[in-house]
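Structure tokens please, single chain.
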Amino acid sequence: MRMRLFRDRPSAMADEELAALRQQRLAELQAKHGDTAADPSQQEAKQREAEIRNTILAQVLDQAARARLSNLALVKPDKAKAVENYLIQMARFGQLPGKVSEQGLIEILEKVSQQTEKKTTVKFNRRKVLDSDEEDDY
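Here you go.
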């Protein structure tokens, strides 16, 4: 067995350079993805919006429907967001007579699923190959 010597270990200068490169890359990624940690006002606005959404949904949904929607958000967050937006819009326009039950939420989920259902089509693109019948390939 060969023992590892100190010369096999990268120098402290290389460690500092590596740390600097990591910091630079992290800053680039945060700037690219629009990290809002640097801007507290945007973060507060998003937090307020989330609180408003939660209060509206709490007023509109009963307990069982709220539980089903939160379970859906864990599995399919985009579909849950669409249902939340639909419910909030209906609530703002006064189209909901009372609290939505779990069965009512299931019906809304079916409507949203039908609207967002992706149709899969297969299209064959047959390319014409210049193939002569006179020549036989053996």
